[in-house]
Design goal:
Blueprint (H helix, E strand, L loop, with lengths): L1 H20 L37 H11 L12 E10 L18 E10 L14 E9 L2 E8 L12 H8 L10 H8 L6 H8 L13 E2 L4 E4 L5 E10 L8 H10 L3 H12 L4 E10 L25 E11 L4 H6 L12 E3 L3 H18 L73 H9 L2 H16 L4 H14 L1 H11 L3 H33 L1
Antiparallel strand pairs: 1-2, 1-9, 2-3, 3-4, 5-7, 6-7, 6-10, 7-8, 8-9
Length: 538
């Protein structure tokens, strides 16, 4: 009876065609397990009889559920939601006398790139219309390896020292108690950070709600160094200027669009570039400073809360970025793309910018956490023209193999050595280890200049957005301090914010005055300490 039942069941499950395949190899259109074995039934789990429980031995079921459980890699803490596009960078000016960096070695040279646009604060599936800075990260696939220019659509940042970065992000993120993102938390933090005035002003303007990733400018934000073949260097900043018209939403427009499409930026890219075959382009502008010029300004040029005004540091167009192809698979490429400012190539080095110095560690470490130490072997992250030739070994998802016995250096058995031509540049140092603030803060001036360059409508929207958000903060002291920041930037700006936020103007004026005096006192003290420490070393 058992033999008869088994025969009947086999015929029922397999049928004549399926049974005949058991003696053949696996065809190209057969569903398989991860190990390549063909799947006989993807509709029903193995059970103990028709009414019994599911069997643990059903390896296909277990493998399928386990893979599903692990489909989501850890979400980026910042820049979680993003959209990627491929293209190329075309260099227009030969800069070989200024830098060893491959993309800039001749006019007309082209370098493949992958660009990831993103929102910064909000989560992976958040609406793309929310007020936020936008990431603008460019991965150059050069013959010297990959160079990541990891920037934003704003040319400035909220803070100037990376030690504050986790606190700032925590303030922006939802409350750990209620899981609500609340203005009272954000403004509580920033009421202690006057250097944030410039970027907060940009954030609450219409630039904080761009209408499209393709219709916004980008910036490397930080100062870097160009290094020539003799080790000489100069400080540089990079800016992407869109060849598409700049388009921003008002707050009302952003909310309206969100009701129709919560991902308009992704839709826009996949429609314009993916479906219609359009291209988008940006011109790359370069600003340069000699090392001896760093102390020539009223602000510190290595402060990420400052721009280099083009009236003081002219910008020249050196190249063009063209985006023309969307990825084949979002997860494999856009989601697994690993950007880090520490991905540098010969001829480009980090400056002493304190925010950049922290990001050199933090971004690369984030990718090691998310994707593992072999993240750079994932195709979207792998250098295209460079052999990865080192002794780093093993780790999660190691896909390559080597029969090489020598996994150390130096060795007399394997001739694999460094090239002195690519040593880092040298910078003279003075002073002692220290923990002191910048002594050229100038926290408010550039914010005022940005405000006055807006249209009347833009100014009105900025005041409405910021004042409205600030009005929900229960503490009057915080409303007064934030209003005072803006009052120090521009009196009309500050007065408008204070009125909407219900911050008493008498207190705003006095606080603004106190803030300026405190800034001057901190500057004098920090300068004195810095000069004293330098003198001790001479």
């Amino acid at each position: 009876v058992r033999t008869s039942m088994k025969s009947t069941l086999t015929k029922f499950v397999l049928g004549g065609v399926a049974a005949s395949m058991l003696t053949l190899g696996v065809s190209a259109d057969t569903l398989t397990r991860q190990n390549g074995a063909p799947v006989g039934d993807n509709q029903n789990s193995q059970t103990a009889g028709p009414w019994g429980p599911v069997l643990l031995q059903d390896s296909h079921l277990i493998e399928k559920l386990a893979a599903f459980d692990r489909e989501r890699i850890p979400e980026r803490v910042v820049h979680a939601r993003g959209t990627g596009v491929y293209g190329y960078y075309e260099n227009l000016v030969d800069l070989s006398d200024e830098t060893l960096a491959a993309p800039f070695q001749s006019a007309g040279k082209k370098t493949d790139v992958f660009v990831r646009f993103s929102s910064v604060v909000h989560g992976h599936l958040s609406p793309e219309t929310l007020r936020d800075p936008r990431g603008f990260a460019v991965k150059f696939y050069t013959e010297q390896g990959n160079w990541d220019l990891v920037g934003n659509n704003f040319p400035v940042f909220f803070i100037r020292d990376a030690i504050k970065f986790p606190d700032m992000v925590h303030a922006f993120k939802p409350s750990p108690v209620t899981n609500k993102q609340e203005p009272k938390r954000i403004f509580d933090f920033f009421s202690h950070v006057p250097e944030s005035t410039h970027t907060l002003t940009m954030l609450f303007s219409d630039y904080g709600t761009p209408a499209s990733y393709l219709n916004m400018d980008g910036s490397g934000v930080h100062a870097f160094k160009f290094v020539d073949d003799e080790g000489n260097y100069k400080y540089v900043k990079f800016t992407w200027k869109s060849n598409q018209p700049i388009k921003n939403f008002t707050n009302e427009e952003a909310m309206k669009v969100q009701g129709m499409d919560m991902q308009p930026h992704t839709t826009d890219i996949y429609t314009r570039i993916g479906e219609k075959g359009e291209t988008a382009s940006w011109d790359l502008y370069l600003q340069e400073l000699e090392p001896e010029q760093l102390d020539d300004f009223e602000f510190n040029p290595l402060d990420t809360t400052k721009i280099w005004p083009e009236s003081l540091v002219p910008a020249k167009k050196i190249g063009r970025l063209v985006l023309n192809r969307v990825p084949d698979n979002f997860f494999e490429e856009t989601e697994q793309a690993a950007f880090a400012p520490s991905n540098l190539i010969p001829g480009i080095e980090p400056s002493e910018d304190r925010m950049l110095q922290g990001r050199l560690f933090s971004y690369a470490d984030t990718q090691r956490y998310r994707l593992g130490v072999n993240a750079y072997r994932i195709p979207v992250n792998a250098p295209k023209n460079t052999v990865i030739n080192n002794h780093e070994q093993h780790g999660q998802l190691r896909t390559t193999s080597t029969a090489r016995d020598v996994n150390y250096q130096p060795s007399r058995r394997l001739d694999l050595n460094e090239d002195p031509a690519f040593r880092y540049s040298s910078k003279p140092l003075a002073g002692m280890t220290q923990q002191i603030p910048f002594y050229k803060e100038q926290n408010f001036k550039q914010a005022g200049e940005f405000f006055r360059n807006l249209t009347k409508e833009g100014q009105k929207n900025l005041i409405s957005n910021l004042g409205g958000a600030l009005a929900s903060v229960p503490e009057e002291e915080i409303r007064v301090i934030i209003s005072a920041y803006m009052y120090n930037a521009d009196k009309d700006y500050g007065a408008g914010v204070a009125k909407l936020a219900k911050a008493p103007m008498s207190k705003v004026r006095q606080t603004a005055k106190d803030l300026m005096e405190q800034q001057a006192a901190r500057a004098a003290k920090a300068k004195q300490v810095a000069e004293s420490l330098t003198a001790l070393m001479q």
